[in-house]
Write a structure and sequence with these properties.
single chain, alpha+beta, Beta-Lactamase, five-stranded antiparallel sheet
Length: 942
C-alpha cells in the first residue's frame, strides 16, 4: 500500500515536473515569439518611417526644382525683373502695381503653371520683403509674410526653401471652392537673380499643406491605427491626423477645426478615448509626451514598450529628426494593434497550459476521460476547418521559394484547382506572363534588398485559372518570419465586377464628353446666329437713319430757307408758325439721334477713345453753348470749373461733352424761373474726380429717383411744354459706364437736384497740341466773297436736295453752282470745270460716293479739290469711314443751314483765287442740259 502510494506520489511528482517543463517551454516560446514580434514590429515601423521620409524628401526636392524652373524660365524672369524695377519707381501706388502689365502676364502664365504643378498661387517679394505681386490682389502691398516661418530671409540669401505650414494670412478657397474660417498655407520660395547674378527679390509659390501632406503622408498609414506625422520644434502637429473625428469627439478639436497646427503632442495622463476632456482639465499644463520631448531635442529613437500619444492612447513608435527641414517625423501604432498577435498567443498559451494541467489532473483522476478529451480536440479542429471553408476569398501560404504550403478551400472555386493539386507547387502557376516567369526573381530580390513590389501592400494583377482563363484580382501579401525564414500569406479577391463597373464609368465619361462637344457646337451655332442678328440690327439702324433723315432734310432745309429769306420776308405770325415747324423738326431729329444712339450702345458697337481731357477747357466750350439757352429761360449758369486747367480726367472727350451738355440742359429746362445751375468739380479720392451739376428746380420725389435713368420715362412731365425724349439720361449713364465712370443723382423735393459723374483722374498730357488738323480759315466776309468768284459742284441724284442747295446758295452770289444727278456726269464736270469745292452724296446710282471720291483723287485735274460728303447716313461708323477714306468733312441730312454755310465758307474760301468764271450756270441734266429735266424724276432715297 505504501509502495503504491509512493509510486503514485513519484508519478504525481513526475507529472507535475512534466507539466512545469511544458509550461516553462511554452512560456519561453511565447517570450521568443514576443521578442521576434517586437523585432518585426520595429522593422515594420522603421520601414514605414523610412518610406515616409523618402516620400517627403522626394516631394521637397521636386517642389524646389519646380519652383526654380518656373522662376528661372527666361520670359518669367524677365517679367519678374521688370515688375521689381517698376515697384521701386517713385510714387507707385498699389493700384499701379495691380494694373502693371508685367504682373498681368505673370498672373496669366504662372496661374496656368500653378495649376499644372499643384501650386495654389504665387507671391513676389522685393529685396525688403514687400509683397509687390501675387496671383490675388489681397496679399499685395503688405510685408507680413516675410515674418512667417523664416523662409524669406533664407531665400534672400540664396536658398530655395519650403516653409513650415502656418495660418493663412488671406482667404484661400479649398478644393470644394469653400473658404473655411481657419485655413493653413505654406510656401516654397526661391531667389530672383538679375542679369548681374545679384539677388533682387524672392518668388514664392503657395502650397495647400492639407493636400500635399495627406498625399505622401498617407503612405505611412497602415493597419487600423498606424500613422506617420510631422511636428515642429514646439511639438505642434503639422500634418493632418488620422483621427480628426476622434479628436473632435474627445474635445481636443472644435467642430470645424482641422488637427494640423491645432494639436500639440502632449501626454494627457489618461486615455481620452475612454475618458474625454472635462472643464476641470488644464490642457495647457500637460507635458509633452516621450516622443515629442525626444524630437524637440533633435534625437531619434523608438519605444516598443508603449507610451501615450496625443489622445492618451498607448502606442508604440519610432521617430527621427529631419535637420534639413527642422521637422520631426514619427510613425506610431496602438499597443493594442501592435501586440494583438502576442496577446492572442499568450492567451492561447495560458489556455493550453490550463487545459494541459486540467487534462493531466483529469487524466490522473479519470483516465477514461482521455478519449473524450481527444474527441474534443478533433471537434475543435473540425470547427477551424469549417471557418476556413466559409471564407469566400482564397488564402494561400507560401515559403520563401514560392512553394505553396497551404490553401483555403475557396481556391477551388476561384482557380478550379483542388487544394491537394496545389500543395507543393510553385505559386507562379496561378499568374500569367510576364509575372509568372519573374515571380521567383521578385521574392529573391525582396529577401536580398528588402525592396518590396507587392509585400505588405495591395496590388492589382491578373490570376490564371486551371483552364487557362484569366480574371482581375486584388492581391494583399503579408510576411511573417519564423526561425530566420520568411513565409508569405496572400489574400486574393476577385474584382471582375469592379472592373466592369469601371468600364461602364469610362463609357459614361466618353458619352458625357460627346454630349459636351455637342453642346459646345450648339452654343457656337447660337453665337453665330446672335452675331448675324446683331449685323441685321445694325443694317436696320443704318437704313432707318437714312430713311428718316432724307425727308427731314427737305422739311428742315426749306423751312430754314423760307424763315431766313430776305427777298420774300415773312410776317411775324408766319415766322412764329414756321418757327414751330423748325422746332418740331429739330425735336424729331433729336429723337431720331437719341434712339439710334441708345440702340448702338445696347448692341455694343459704340467705340470709346479715352484720352486726357482738361475739365476747365471742356467746361468753357460747354458754357459758351449753354449760356445763351440759360438766358432764354431766365436761369443763371455758374461755371466753377473754368480757370482750373490742372484737372484732367481719362475720358472720350466727345462723349463726355455729350453727357455734360445733357445734364446742364436738363438743369436749365426743368428749373424754376430765376433759378441757378451750378457746375463744380471735387476730388473724390486720389484716383477719381467728381463733376457735379446742381440745379434749384422742383426736385425729384424719392420714389421716382430709380426711374430717372430708364429710357422713355420722363417722370410725368410728358404733357408740359418742355421738349424731351426721355432717352438722354439712359444714354448718358451707359456712356459713363463705357468710360469706366459712374452717373448718379440725389434730390430734395422743393430744393433741387444734384447730378454727379465720376471718372478716373489722368496726368496732364505732355503734348498740348490737341488739334490734329490745321485750322481752316474762318468764314469770308461779304467784301471778300464779292472780290472773287468761286465754283461749287454738287453731285446729288435727289431733285429736292439739289433744289434745296440751289436755294441756299442763292444767297451767295459769289458762288457759281454746278450740279449733276449722276456720278459719271459729276466726274466729267469736275475734270472740265475744276471747281473750288465738291459736295458729294454718298448713296448714288451705279457708283456710290466712296468710288466717286476714289476716281476724283486719281485724276490729275481734281485730286487737290476738297470733297465734302453729304448724306442721311448719320451713324458714327459711317462718318468715321467717310473721313478715313479722304473726305474733307461730313455733313448729315437734314441740313442745318448755319452749319452748312459755315462749312462751305470754310473750305471754299481756303482755295486760291482764280479768274472769275462765266456767269452763273444753271444745274445741268445729263440728258439735255435742261435744269427742269431733273424735277420730274422720282426722288431717290439718299
Amino acid at each position: 500500500m505504501t509502495a503504491a502510494v509512493n509510486r503514485q506520489a513519484r508519478i504525481a511528482v513526475m507529472a507535475l515536473m512534466f507539466i512545469a517543463l511544458i509550461i516553462g517551454l511554452g512560456w519561453l516560446g511565447v517570450e521568443t515569439v514576443e521578442n521576434k514580434l517586437k523585432e518585426n514590429l520595429s522593422q515594420q515601423l522603421h520601414a514605414a518611417l523610412k518610406s515616409s521620409k523618402e516620400a517627403f524628401r522626394l516631394w521637397t526636392h521636386d517642389t524646389r526644382i519646380d519652383a526654380q524652373i518656373l522662376t528661372n524660365e527666361p520670359s518669367t524672369r524677365s517679367h519678374l525683373l521688370k515688375l521689381l524695377e517698376f515697384s521701386e519707381s517713385a510714387n507707385v501706388s498699389l493700384k499701379d502695381l495691380r494694373s502693371n502689365p508685367d504682373l498681368q502676364w505673370l498672373r496669366k502664365y504662372l496661374g496656368r503653371a500653378c495649376a499644372k504643378y499643384g501650386f495654389v498661387g504665387f507671391v513676389v517679394f522685393d529685396a525688403k520683403g514687400l509683397q509687390v505681386g501675387a496671383l490675388l490682389d489681397e496679399p499685395m502691398g503688405k510685408s507680413n509674410l516675410k515674418k512667417r516661418s523664416g523662409f524669406f530671409h533664407r531665400s534672400i540669401l540664396g536658398e530655395t526653401v519650403i516653409s513650415h505650414p502656418f495660418p493663412a494670412e488671406i482667404s484661400i478657397p479649398d478644393l470644394e471652392g469653400e473658404s473655411p474660417l481657419e485655413q493653413t498655407t505654406m510656401l516654397v520660395s526661391t531667389p530672383i537673380f538679375n542679369n548681374l547674378s545679384e539677388i533682387v527679390g524672392v518668388l514664392a509659390f503657395r502650397i495647400r499643406p492639407e493636400t500635399e501632406f495627406s498625399r505622401f503622408m498617407s503612405a505611412g498609414r497602415f493597419g487600423k491605427t498606424g500613422e506617420t506625422y510631422l511636428i515642429d520644434q514646439n511639438g505642434t502637429l503639422l500634418s493632418p491626423s488620422r483621427f480628426d473625428e476622434s479628436l473632435r469627439e474627445i474635445g481636443l478639436l472644435g467642430r470645424n477645426q482641422s488637427s494640423h497646427l491645432n494639436i500639440q503632442i502632449k501626454d494627457p495622463g489618461r486615455d481620452l478615448t475612454q475618458a474625454p476632456i472635462t472643464s476641470a482639465d488644464k490642457t495647457d499644463q500637460w507635458p509633452l509626451n516621450q516622443m515629442a520631448k525626444a524630437l524637440i531635442s533633435k534625437n531619434k529613437g523608438e519605444n516598443l514598450e508603449g507610451y501615450r500619444d496625443y489622445r492618451g492612447t498607448p502606442v508604440v513608435g519610432v521617430w527621427a529628426w529631419l535637420e534639413e527641414h527642422q521637422l520631426g517625423m514619427a510613425t506610431e501604432m496602438s499597443v493594442e494593434e501592435a501586440f494583438a498577435p502576442i496577446n492572442t498567443l499568450t492567451n492561447w498559451f495560458l489556455g493550453m497550459a490550463s487545459l494541459l494541467l486540467i487534462a493531466s489532473i483529469v487524466a490522473w483522476i479519470l483516465v477514461m476521460r482521455n478519449e473524450a478529451t481527444r474527441q474534443e480536440g478533433r471537434t475543435h479542429a473540425a470547427r477551424l476547418d469549417s471557418i476556413m471553408n466559409s471564407l469566400r476569398d482564397p488564402i494561400i501560404a507560401i515559403d520563401e521559394n514560392g512553394t505553396i504550403l497551404t490553401v483555403s478551400p475557396a481556391v477551388k472555386k476561384q482557380f478550379y484547382y483542388k487544394p491537394e493539386e496545389l500543395i507543393g507547387k510553385n505559386v507562379k502557376i496561378l499568374v500569367p506572363e510576364p509575372h509568372q516567369s519573374k515571380h521567383d526573381e521578385y521574392i529573391q530580390n525582396y529577401l536580398k534588398t528588402g525592396h518590396a513590389k507587392i509585400i505588405n501592400m495591395m496590388r492589382i494583377l491578373d490570376g490564371l485559372r486551371k483552364d487557362g482563363s484569366t480574371f482581375p484580382m486584388e492581391l494583399r501579401v503579408t510576411e511573417m518570419v519564423s526561425k530566420g525564414k520568411s513565409y508569405f500569406t496572400g489574400i486574393i479577391r476577385d474584382i471582375t465586377e469592379l472592373k466592369r463597373s469601371e468600364e461602364k464609368l469610362r463609357e459614361a465619361n466618353l458619352f458625357l464628353e460627346k454630349r459636351i462637344e455637342q453642346r459646345t457646337k450648339e452654343l457656337e451655332k447660337t453665337t453665330r446666329e446672335a452675331e448675324k442678328s446683331n449685323a441685321a440690327k445694325s443694317e436696320f439702324l443704318t437704313r432707318m437713319s437714312h430713311e428718316l433723315r432724307t425727308p427731314m432734310n427737305a422739311i428742315l432745309g426749306f423751312s430754314q430757307l423760307v424763315y431766313s429769306s430776305k427777298t420774300e420776308p415773312l410776317s411775324e405770325n408766319q415766322k412764329l408758325r414756321l418757327d414751330q415747324i423748325i422746332k418740331a423738326g429739330r425735336h424729331l431729329l433729336e429723337l431720331i439721334n437719341e434712339v439710334l444712339d441708345l440702340a448702338t450702345i445696347e448692341s455694343g458697337r459704340i467705340s470709346i477713345s479715352p484720352e486726357p481731357v482738361c475739365l476747365a477747357d471742356l467746361m468753357d466750350e460747354i458754357y459758351a453753348v449753354t449760356q445763351p439757352i440759360a438766358e432764354q429761360y431766365g436761369i443763371t449758369l455758374i461755371n466753377e470749373v473754368g480757370g482750373n486747367g490742372s484737372i484732367y480726367v481719362l475720358a472720350d472727350k466727345i462723349r463726355l461733352k455729350q453727357v455734360l451738355l445733357n445734364l446742364i440742359s436738363n438743369g436749365i429746362k426743368y428749373n424754376r424761373s430765376g433759378g441757378t445751375v451750378t457746375i463744380n468739380t471735387t476730388e473724390k479720392d486720389r484716383q477719381t474726380q467728381c463733376v457735379e451739376v446742381t440745379d434749384t428746380g422742383m426736385g425729384i420725389p424719392p420714389e421716382k429717383l430709380n426711374k430717372v435713368f430708364e429710357p422713355f420715362d420722363r417722370l410725368g412731365v410728358e404733357n408740359n411744354e418742355i421738349e424731351g425724349t426721355g432717352i438722354g439720361m439712359a444714354i448718358s449713364r451707359k456712356l459713363m459706364k463705357l468710360m469706366q465712370g459712374t452717373l448718379g443723382v440725389d434730390s430734395i423735393v422743393g430744393q433741387g437736384s444734384r447730378f454727379f459723374i465720376t471718372l478716373p483722374k489722368s496726368a496732364r498730357p505732355r503734348n498740348f497740341a490737341a488739334l490734329q488738323e490745321k485750322p481752316a480759315r474762318g468764314p469770308a466776309s461779304e467784301q471778300d466773297r464779292e472780290r472773287s468768284q468761286r465754283t461749287l459742284l454738287y453731285i446729288e441724284d435727289n431733285p429736292a436736295n439739289l433744289k434745296l442747295v440751289e436755294e441756299i446758295l442763292h444767297e451767295r452770289p459769289s458762288i457759281n453752282l454746278l450740279s449733276a444727278h449722276h456720278p459719271h456726269l459729276g466726274m466729267e464736270l469736275a475734270r472740265t470745270h475744276k471747281p473750288d469745292l465738291i459736295l458729294l452724296d454718298i448713296n448714288l446710282p451705279d457708283l456710290d460716293g466712296y468710288k466717286v471720291l476714289k476716281h476724283l483723287q486719281n485724276y490729275d485735274e481734281t485730286h487737290t479739290i476738297p470733297v465734302i460728303a453729304i448724306s442721311a447716313n448719320a451713324m458714327a461708323k459711317d462718318i468715321k469711314r467717310a473721313l478715313d477714306c479722304g473726305f474733307s468733312a461730313y455733313l448729315t441730312k437734314p441740313i442745318d443751314l448755319s452749319q452748312f454755310l459755315s462749312v462751305i465758307d470754310k473750305y471754299i474760301e481756303s482755295r486760291p483765287e482764280k479768274t472769275p468764271p462765266a456767269p452763273k450756270a444753271k444745274p445741268v441734266s445729263p440728258a439735255s442740259g435742261d435744269p427742269e429735266a431733273a424735277a420730274g424724276q422720282d426722288q431717290a432715297n439718299t
